[in-house]
Amino acid sequence: MTSAQVDNGQADGPEAADASAGEGYQRGLGARQIQMIAIGGAIGTGLFLGAGKAIDRAGPSLILAYAIAGLVIFFIMRALGELLMYRPVSGSFAEYAREFLGPFFGFVTGWTYWLFWVVTGITEVTAAATYMTYWWDIPQWLSALVFTVILYGANLISVKLFGELEFWFSMVKVTAILGMILICAGVLTIGFSDAGDTATVANLWNDGGFFPEGISGTLMTLQIVMFAFLAVELVGVTAGESKDPKTVLPKAINTVPWRIAVFYVGALIMILSVVPWSTFEPGVSPFVAAFEEMGLGIGAAIVNFVVLTAALSSCNSGMYSTGRMLRDLALNGQGPKAFTKLTKNGLPLVGTTFSAVLMLVGVWINYQWPGEAFNYVVSFATISGMWAWIMILISQIRYRAKADRGELPQSTFKAPGAPFTSWFALAFIGLVIVMMAIDKDARISLYCAPVWGLILGVSYLVLKARNPENTAFAKR
């Protein structure tokens, strides 16, 4: 529900569950698709490619980093779930920031989350282009261009097709990781493959200990770790197009602990047990490298195909979410009116097209810096994505306080331990930002963030001055 709809007398609270029907979207995403979007959302480039750099920095202790960060992610998702059951809307984070922190924060959150997915789309097509070089010696920029165009076309058909594509993309990723875990288990227990004689759980501490680079090395990987989890919140963006959000979304959110335990912690334990951590190199998928070390060349090629689909899946999600966020902003008078238009299939064509055009910047980045493109965009994607998490947590804290005072209806899906868990998650995100400031490779994103904030601040003041009667700029 947009603020414009609130002013038109539409209901707030639990009875607003179906309010998004008035937004013009079609509820084409079923339980099966939402569950796989939720599962697959956290399985992408950050795990398949970024983990290589993180292993090089932290060694086996990366497992602990993923486990602790995974707990924080669960706190964030339960905070989001509490808000979604209070009011499931397509605008999601921007709408909650607008309601509980004020119109300026809604404006910043909407545009920043849009930017996050544009940058993430660039990251993912960059990764996909990198994977293509495993088979063919073709320019990265050319692969990035082709992938961007294909995924843009796929997002112009229907939301049901998007959901179906994501279902199968996620199915491939899930099946592949489970298969890899089973193969590694076989190597450890039966001893087949070239790594059979050296594979042992003791590899987790034999080569320099569990913390070979010290605690500081582990802390310095937090930015990469948190980047791997970006997009888990995408399930919130699907709220406006879910067939039964009040039933489906809580189930999807409650899968967070076990999917992190299996797909991150479990997978890394198996890989680092079979292949010593010092074998892996930054910029190379540890999954592909592990199969090559085991002498399973065909397996390495299959895994490379899987990580390629993972990158394309994330970029596909980016195409989906950017158009929705731009439309929410436009409906609130905080973006060009052209973004409000939907096709007869209920798709935000203009917003999706605008975002896809900007994603083509990734093609230029790949052309200019094919070796460094991934590292350049990862840090900025992380800081912009974490802004959405911060807004979710603060919004949930304020919502819970109002609900406890009886000013708002209680959510049917309360976050356990809140607001203390939300404060803990905020403190952890603060730690990640400090680590990014220390890391010279990630520091550039902190330089860019104030510039982006200044642009948004000036834009907000200009829009407010031009539309002084627009209720989207008024406090509720």
UniProtKB/TrEMBL annotation:
Membrane protein topology class: Multi-pass membrane protein
Transmembrane portions of the chain: 36-55, 61-80, 100-120, 140-162, 174-195, 215-235, 256-275, 295-315, 347-367, 373-394, 415-438, 444-463
Domain of life the protein comes from: Bacteria
The keyword Transmembrane appears for this protein: yes
Predominant location category: membrane
Keywords assigned: Amino-acid transport, Cell membrane, Membrane, Transmembrane, Transmembrane helix, Transport
One Pfam entry name: AA_permease
Domain Amino acid permease/ SLC12A: 34-464
PROSITE patterns (alphabetical): AMINO_ACID_PERMEASE_1
Localization annotation: Cell membrane
Keyword Transport tagged: yes
Region Disordered: start-end pairs: 1-21
InterPro entries: AA-permease/SLC12A_dom, Amino_acid_permease_CS
Family: Belongs to the amino acid-polyamine-organocation (APC) superfamily. Amino acid transporter (AAT) (TC 2.A.3.1) family.
Protein's UniProt name: Amino acid permease
